[in-house]
Specification:
InterPro entries: Ald_DH/histidinol_DH, Ald_DH_C, Ald_DH_CS_CYS, Ald_DH_CS_GLU, Ald_DH_N, Aldehyde_DH_dom. The protein is an alpha/beta fold. It is built from 15 helices and 22 strands. The structure holds 1,4-dihydronicotinamide adenine dinucleotide (NAI) and the ligand O=C(O)/C=C/C=C(\O)C(=O)O.
């Protein structure tokens, strides 16, 4: 197995692809009990490049027990916070040092531009890692007074934050490495142990990350990786009675299934789910900012971004200019494999995702939709042309459902109020953007937009210090920010009578 395409790849990537399929348990790559495997494809050609383990419930049990043993004996959680922080910072440094190998491996399994892999999966991720590492030394409760008999002079009362236990991290395929780190890092910073399950479509970088954590000094058993299907390996992991907390990013239906499982075991959970993210363009908006903002907001990573702009509501005076400038821009995009640094349109992650996106476009065409199709894409590989859908009907599937592809609906509206009403007419509420030069409009409208993040004059920017998560069916809980570790700790009240 390996990559046999036209672009040169790092020797570390070639060696990694040639390894026998394995899980990562107790600090080592280990052979699975399961004989079942899953193929990994290069989305730019459809060629198979690797084989991954499809872990059985017994394999998952072995990984969870390893994590549980590591938690129980305190080899990680009982280290001084400053020592945990040092290991996590070293982990971030090694991710940076090995960045080119990570970036190429990510592009090979996911299809995205090597520029995006370098910038997000490696560059942004390592900044996230350092941010979370810094939280390790900030964990703490607070003292408080009570009105118990005798008053505060007879009682000392305070809270402590204690690591919740073994965390199951379930990651998706759109930013396999970055989102895996969003699962693993806060758990480790809080003193928890982790079992990570990457998507079966993109299982490779997670295994490389686990080895890198060991090389950075993380004790064995604290960070384990199981690969495999959602229905088998993923379900076995989330159902496991030794899992104390689940952190999941992915589709809303799978998030709901995980929530139901978690409720059965009273397992804590955080869900970051799908989006159907609107961009409201007011008549006074600066089109020179709107066009590049929407191109990035809608087409970054082929639109496979949970917060991607997917529904534009533009006030009538700007509609024609906006559509013609977007059409010109998507028509001029260069197309190619992710490893070609000049290609702006890259394949989607899988044949299944390509077919799913094409089905949304076929449905729109069949309903009489007006589609403007951008740069022509090759037949080989999992490409879809960037596409604008003009004034899509409100009941079209692509208006209501998360498409996760390079598709942007653009609707002309008569007023900001109409744009706002249409923007909020969704069962999801992850992100939204508002484009205006008028401060008063921005201040009036932002509180009325039903989304976990509202960008004004930008879209899709995220930062480790900015809490991120969804309203409505876009999730439960928040990632990032100074309070991020709260979701990985139990809050204990201590009440001392003296
Ligand atoms: N919000 C986001 O960031 C993402 C949204 N999606 C959306 O989901 C659609 C389908 O993509 P999928 O990969 O099928 O998403 P998914 O939500 O089913 O998969 C995400 C992760 O969950 C795991 N999983 C699936 N079923 C599970 C179960 N019963 N128990 C535990 N883990 C389970 C998968 O193996 C994968 O690791 C996409 O077309 C896209 O619309 C996909 C990836 C990321
Ligand atoms: O906005 C970005 O840069 C990336 C966001 C990715 C997610 O949160 C996601 O798709 O889950």
């Amino acid at each position: 197995m390996g990559y046999d395409g036209p672009y040169p790849v790092d020797a570390r990537v070639t060696e990694f692809l040639a390894l026998d399929p394995a899980l990562f348990i107790d600090g080592l790559r280990v052979a699975p009990g399961s004989a079942s495997t899953l193929p990994v494809f290069d989305p730019s050609s459809g060629a198979q490049i690797a084989v991954a383990v499809d872990a059985s419930a017994a394999d998952v049990d072995r990984a969870v027990r390893s994590a549980h043993a590591a938690f129980a004996d305190g080899r990680w959680r009982q280290l001084r916070p400053a020592d945990r922080e040092r290991v996590l910072l070293r982990f971030a440094d090694l991710v940076t040092e090995r960045g080119e190998a990570f970036a190429q491996l990510e592009t090979l399994e996911q299809g995205k531009s090597i520029n995006i892999s370098r910038m997000f999966e490696v560059g942004a991720s390592s900044e996230w890692m350092r941010y979370v590492a810094g939280l390790t030394t900030k964990i703490g409760g607070r003292t408080f007074d009570t009105s118990l008999p005798g008053g505060p002079q007879h009682w000392t009362t305070y809270t402590r934050r204690e690591p919740v236990g073994v965390v199951a991290g379930i990651a998706p395929w759109n930013f396999p490495m970055m989102i895996a780190l969003w699962k693993v890092m806060p758990a480790l910073a809080a003193g928890c142990s982790v079992v990570l399950k990457p998507s079966e479509v993109t299982p490779l970088t997670a295994l490389m990350l686990a080895q890198t954590a060991i090389d950075a000094g993380l004790p064995p058993g604290v960070f384990n990786v199981v690969t495999g299907s959602g229905a088998g390996c993923g379900a076995a992991l989330t159902e496991h009675p030794l899992i104390a907390k689940i952190t999941f990013t992915g589709s809303t239906p799978t998030g709901k299934a995980i929530g139901r499982t978690a409720a059965g075991n009273m397992t804590r959970f955080t869900l970051e789910l799908g989006g159907k993210n609107p961009a409201i363009i007011l008549r006074d908006a600066d089109l020179d900012a709107v066009i590049p903002g929407l191109l990035a907001g809608a087409f970054l990573n082929g639109g496979q971004v949970c917060a991607a702009a997917s529904r534009v509501y533009v006030e009538a005076p700007l509609y024609d200019a906006l559509v013609s400038q977007l059409e010109a821009a998507i028509g001029a995009m260069s197309v190619g494999a992710g490893l070609d640094p000049n290609a702006q349109v890259n394949p989607l992650v899988s044949k299944a995702q390509q077919m799913k996106v094409q089905a949304y476009l076929e449905d729109a065409r069949a309903q009489g939709g007006d589609l403007l199709v951008g740069a022509k894409v090759p037949d080989a590989g999992y490409f879809v042309s960037p596409t604008l859908v003009l004034n899509p009907a409100e009941n079209l599937k692509l208006t209501r459902e998360e498409v996760f592809g390079p598709v942007l609906g653009v609707t002309r509206v008569d007023s900001a109020e109409q744009g706002l009403a249409l923007a909020n007419d969704s069962n999801m509420g992850l992100g939204a953007s508002l484009w205006t030069r008028d401060l008063k409009s921005a201040m009036d409208l932002t509180p009325r937009i039903e989304a976990g993040t509202v960008w004004v004059n930008s879209h899709v920017f995220i930062d480790p210090n900015m809490p991120f998560g969804g309203y409505k069916q876009s999730g439960i809980g928040r990632d990032f920010g100074v309070d991020w570790l709260d979701a990985y700790t139990e809050l204990k009240s201590v009440c001392i009578s003296h």
